[in-house]
Amino acid sequence: DAGITQSPRHKVTETGTPVTLRCHQTENHRYMYWYRQDPGHGLRLIHYSYGVKDTDKGEVSDGYSVSRSKTEDFLLTLESATSSQTSVYFCAISVGGGDDTQYFGPGTRLTVL
Amino acid sequence: AQSVAQPEDQVNVAEGNPLTVKCTYSVSGNPYLFWYVQYPNRGLQFLLKYITGDNLVKGSYGFEAEFNKSQTSFHLKKPSALVSDSALYFCAVRAVNTDKLIFGTGTRLQVFP
Question: What is the residue extent of each domain of chain B?
């Protein structure tokens, strides 16, 4: 999985609780992405980052925030989880510099009850 | 706006037969096109991409894809399917002047022995 780890791999939480998902990469790639995968929707971009403290919104960013204080870590936070945020979340990296290929982590399955 | 369509939710093929998974796209300017595969409970794995050059792109595991500009298509093909090819396949497109991939909704390939 391209040197990308995600934690936790599975989480069950209750509506209204905060949740933070972590993506960690070992190769200091500049670009990092958070997606969610839902049946019938494919993958949809939540937020992405060009570098430390440089982030931007994606297609489905409402209800999510991100932080990147170190090159290797990209955190996704659900401030107050809702059942509609039950999904599988994937982190991805790209090398940049003209190579647009994205490489994905193993995913986190989040269930919000 | 850019978009990707995968018109078939599922493709069934017998082992040993050729397979095609269809993808059409809409993007202004020249597209960057990608195919990914997802095995159960795994992240997406990069198969191949088209940036420029030869319209026939060869990728991992014996897969290839043909870029057709006039039909705005990028179909994934393999001459002889294996049962182990059974998985979920995603097409994605990136416009030249953006940093983001747009994914199709995915096609489930089922190869029967």
Answer: 3-112
Establish if B49 touches chain A: CB-CB under 8 angstroms.
yes
The region that residue B16 occupies, defined by phi over 0 for left and psi between -120 and 50 for alpha, beta otherwise, is left
Superfamily of domain B3-112: Immunoglobulins (2.60.40.10)
The reported pLDDT for the residue numbered B96 is 67
* Strand, coil or helix: A83: helix
pLDDT of A71 strictly over 70: yes
The CATH number given to whatever domain includes residue A77 is: 2.60.40.10
* C-alpha distance from B9 to closest chain A C-alpha (Å): 9
A to B CB pairs, distance under 8 Å: 47
Give B24-41 pLDDT, tens digit per residue: 999 888 889 999 999 988
Amino acid letter for position B67: F
Q: Give CA–CA dist A74/A23, Å, rounded.
A: 5
